[in-house]
Amino acid sequence: LGADGNYIVSGTAMSYKLPYEGIAGLNKWYAEKYPPSTNAPDYFLYGYCWLQTLQKGVEGAGVIDQTKIRDYLKDHEIDTIGGKFNFDEKGLPSPYSFTTQVINQKVELIWPLNVRTAEPVYPKPDWGK
């Protein structure tokens, strides 16, 4: 969309711009392994985050047993490249989302404040300005 895509507000559950531990290293590794990429794509980061969760569940439970892993995760907050997570009785994480806005043709994180990469633009300038 070029400049016509500027100021679109949307959301995501993962971004290479998140400030959490491990993201910068994964971006660097991915860019070196798969040039001309400059950062890891979201699908790569989702998979890494899911595997971090499984690893922490197995290490915390001390066994490879689905019920014990689930029970461990229900009772412990875990840190991942996607942030901190708690899980409910069904094994689902608390709802979370990051709000994005396209600014200067780049997707920026604008909310929550602790992950903000750019100030939101509001109101949107008239088309062509």
Kindly list the characteristics that best describe this protein.
129 residues, alpha+beta, three-stranded antiparallel beta sheet, 3 helices
Please outline what is shown here.
The chain has 129 residues and is α+β, with helices and mostly antiparallel strands.
Describe it.
By secondary structure, the protein is of the alpha+beta class. The chain has 3 helices and 5 strands, in the order βαααββββ. The protein has helices at 23-33, 42-61, 66-75, and strands at residues 9-12, 78-80, 83-85, 98-103, 106-111. A 3-stranded antiparallel sheet has the order 1-4-5, with no helix packed on it. The chain has a two-stranded antiparallel sheet with strand order 2-3. It is elongated, with a radius of gyration of 18 Å.
**What is the spatial order of strands in the main beta sheet?**
1-4-5
Radius of gyration: 18 Å
What distance lies between the first and last C-alpha atoms, to the nearest angstrom? 15 Å
**What's the rounded overall pLDDT mean?**
95
Query: Uncertain segments of ≥5 residues (pLDDT<50)?
Result: none
- The dominant shape is elongated
Percent helix:
25-40%
- List the secondary-structure elements in sequence, H or E: EHHHEEEE
- Structure annotation, total helices: 3
Q: Tell me the major beta sheet.
A: 3 strands, antiparallel
DSSP summary, beta strand count = 5
User: Strand fraction band?
Assistant: 15-25%
Topology overview:
Layout: E1 9-12, H1 23-33, H2 42-61, H3 66-75, E2 78-80, E3 83-85, E4 98-103, E5 106-111
Antiparallel strand pairs: 1-4, 2-3, 4-5
Helix pairs in contact: 2-3
